[in-house]
């Protein structure tokens, strides 16, 4: 495939150049607004936009010392923690029968389980609002927001864990059973360690999704505020440099968790391999 | 394991049924969460949309009033059509922009650079949705980059409102929001396509257009369908983008839903929500043949 690119005609080379320029422009389009946002958060200019007058950290200091933001951060983290716990437990347990049992309407169930991802968050938000305030008479609180967000994040965990279970060699479990391991020990020492990377990735993904979630939370949290909601109420009055600073920090936080979500499973796998090779080599030395 | 027990039918049946039930048991939490807090509320929304409000109380009396009301207000109906139009245009442009990008990535970029470049293009999709909309304010806003720049260079003296608060701003931001997803799905299907087949078709006398239509498109159709569905559907229920960059000119049906619910007109809001849900259902039915969940689950 790469070879036929090399022997291209003049026209082919022009095409290649044009596409490369196009690709570069796409990246400028994708990252331009975000980069500008971060750039302006360091700008001394009070309007939070062009022109750059001087570089400063004062907007970060202002954001960090704002009490309202402290509260919002606390609420956001609490909600995200609870959402992560719920979606990991519910998502992981649901992935097992989904992959392993002979389910009659497997395709239907699969579509049903990912429906909350496909359907706009707005509909999840309003329908839960009606359920909570109507038939259930529940007071809106961070807890109701947790339920709403979990509906949306759990399918992601289900997807990740079932993808991992799908590639799982069940002979390992049978071997453990033959060696006398009971169901609990098989789960604890064979299955869970093998699907752990997917569970961790799912947990981190649920956490970032929860950190950034706006619309469901907006309807269900009542009088409390999370960071996205705080930012939204500030945006209504236009761009401010403090919000730019806050937004940059939130971006950095979600990128960090995201990087962990992708890197951690690989680190775990790599470290296990290292351990296995290490013990293998030691065993070899002993026998030699 | 099971053959030996045929002489004891009842015990055997019990032994067979119990594990079956036990194997479904792990579904229970998911059924409670997604059934109780996703399907049931959607069902309630359906009911609400056909119920009446008397003195601020929802009365369980079946009526079509909520729908009559919606369709009797021209502004609402116009907003509904505008929403469909915006979804259509934004989806079309997003896919149109994503296709050459995916083509470039899979055909012209050296193999070892493909994965990192793809990840780079998808990363924005996982960062805050609200912040990505907000970031356009710094460019398009009254005090945004574009206006400041024009004033600074002396091309205009007053800020131009033109860049913001209309439908085209909404479409631009929507393209920005959903491009990564379209690029990812198109890339994964284009990458698997064997381009020699296209050349073979043309050697056998097919026109370039004919070869693309009959060889390329059928093979990458699942990718195209997934991209269309996952871009079109969320845009139908869009609230934030029109709210932040759309102003009065860019109102979409999602904003109507929020307005109704904030005004505590639950039954009317429910009716509009159901309209969105019906459009989504139509999309899914329309594309059900090409839609496969197998890949998403890694099977």
Set out the fold topology:
The complex is a heterodimer of chains A (288) and B (299).
Chain A (H helix, E strand, L loop, with lengths): L1 H5 L3 H32 L16 H7 L2 H34 L5 H13 L2 H13 L8 H25 L4 H8 L4 H30 L2 H6 L6 H9 L5 H47 L1
Helix pairs in contact in A: 2-12, 3-12, 4-7, 4-9, 5-7, 6-7, 7-9, 8-9, 9-12, 11-12
Chain B lengths: L8 H16 L2 H23 L2 E3 L2 E3 L5 H8 L1 H34 L3 H16 L2 H12 L4 H8 L14 H24 L5 H8 L4 H29 L3 H7 L6 H10 L3 H21 L13
Antiparallel strand pairs in B: 1-2
Helix pairs in contact in B: 2-13, 3-13, 4-8, 4-10, 5-8, 6-8, 6-11, 8-10, 8-11, 9-10, 12-13
- Through-space gap between termini of chain B: 28 Å
Whole-number count of domains of chain B: 2
Kindly state the mean pLDDT of chain A as a whole number? 83
In percent terms, what proportion of residues of chain B is strand? Answer: under 5%
The level 1 CATH classification of the largest domain in chain A is Mainly Alpha
Oligomer: heterodimer
CATH class of the largest domain in chain B: Mainly Alpha
- Main sheet record of chain A: none
Rg calc of chain B: 26 Å
Classify the beta-strand content of chain A into a percent band: under 5%
The largest chain-to-chain contact, stated as pair and per-chain residue counts, equals: A-B, 93 and 89 residues
Instruction: Provide the CATH superfamily of the largest domain in chain B.
Output: MetI-like
Could you name the CATH topology of the largest domain in chain B? MetI-like fold
State the helicity of chain B in percent bands.
over 70%
Radius of gyration of chain A: 25 Å
Largest sheet of chain B: 2 strands, antiparallel
**H and E string of chain B:** HHEEHHHHHHHHHHH
Query: Total number of β-strand segments of chain A?
Result: 0
């Amino acid at each position: 495939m790469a070879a036929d690119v090399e022997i291209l005609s003049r026209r082919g080379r022009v095409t290649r150049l044009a596409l490369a320029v196009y690709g570069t422009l796409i990246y400028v389009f994708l990252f331009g607004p975000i980069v500008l946002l971060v750039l302006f958060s360091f700008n001394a200019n009070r309007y939070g936009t062009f022109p750059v007058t001087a570089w400063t950290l004062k907007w970060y200091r202002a954001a960090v010392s704002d009490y309202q933001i402290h509260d919002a951060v606390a609420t956001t983290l609490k909600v995200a923690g609870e959402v992560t716990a719920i979606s990991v437990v519910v998502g992981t347990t649901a992935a097992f029968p989904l992959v392993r049992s002979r389910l009659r309407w497997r395709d239907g169930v699969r579509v049903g389980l990912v429906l909350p991802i496909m359907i706009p968050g707005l509909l999840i938000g309003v329908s839960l609002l009606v359920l909570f305030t109507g038939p259930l008479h529940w007071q809106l609180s961070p807890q109701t927001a947790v339920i709403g967000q979990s509906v949306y994040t759990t399918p992601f965990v289900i997807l990740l864990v079932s993808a991992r279970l799908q590639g799982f060699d069940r002979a390992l479990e049978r071997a453990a059973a033959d060696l006398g391991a009971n169901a609990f020990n098989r789960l604890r020492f064979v299955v869970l360690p093998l699907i752990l990377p997917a569970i961790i990735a799912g947990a981190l993904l649920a956490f970032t999704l929860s950190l950034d979630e706006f619309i469901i939370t907006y309807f269900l949290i009542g009088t409390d505020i999370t960071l996205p909601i705080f930012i939204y109420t500030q945006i209504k009055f236009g761009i401010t440099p403090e919000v730019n600073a806050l937004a940059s920090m939130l971006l950095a936080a979600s990128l960090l968790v995201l990087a962990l979500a992708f890197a951690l499973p690989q680190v775990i796998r790599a470290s296990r391999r290292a351990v296995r090779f290490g013990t293998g080599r030691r065993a070899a030395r002993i026998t030699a | 394991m099971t053959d030996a027990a045929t002489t004891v039918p009842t015990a055997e049946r019990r032994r067979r049924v119990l594990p079956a039930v036990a194997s479904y048991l792990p579904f229970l939490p998911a059924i409670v969460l997604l059934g109780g807090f996703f399907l049931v509320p959607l069902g309630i929304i359906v009911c609400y949309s056909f119920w009446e409000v008397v003195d601020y109380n929802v009365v369980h009396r079946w009526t079509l009033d909520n729908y009559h009301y919606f369709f009797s207000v021209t502004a609402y109906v116009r907003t509904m059509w505008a929403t469909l139009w915006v979804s259509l245009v934004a989806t079309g442009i997003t896919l149109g922009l994503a296709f050459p990008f995916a083509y470039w990535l899979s055909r012209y970029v050296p193999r070892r650079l493909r994965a990192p470049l793809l990840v780079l293009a998808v990363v924005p999709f996982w960062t805050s949705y609200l912040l990505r909309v907000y970031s356009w304010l710094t460019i398009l806003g009254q005090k945004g980059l574009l206006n400041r720049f024009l004033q600074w260079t002396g091309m205009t003296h007053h800020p131009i409102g033109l860049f913001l608060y209309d439908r085209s701003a909404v479409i631009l931001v929507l393209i920005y929001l959903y491009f990564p997803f379209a690029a990812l799905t198109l890339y994964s299907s284009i990458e698997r396509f064997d381009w020699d087949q296209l050349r073979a078709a043309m050697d056998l006398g097919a026109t370039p257009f004919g070869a693309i239509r009959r060889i390329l498109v059928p093979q990458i159709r699942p990718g195209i369908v997934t991209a269309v569905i996952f871009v079109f559907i969320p845009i139908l229920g869009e609230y934030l983008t029109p709210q932040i960059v759309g102003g009065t000119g860019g109102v979409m049906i999602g904003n109507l839903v929020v307005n109704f619910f904030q005004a505590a007109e639950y039954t009317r809001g429910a009716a509009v929500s159901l309209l969105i849900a019906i459009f989504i259902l139509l999309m899914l039915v329309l594309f059900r043949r090409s839609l496969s969940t197998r890949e998403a689950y890694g099977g």
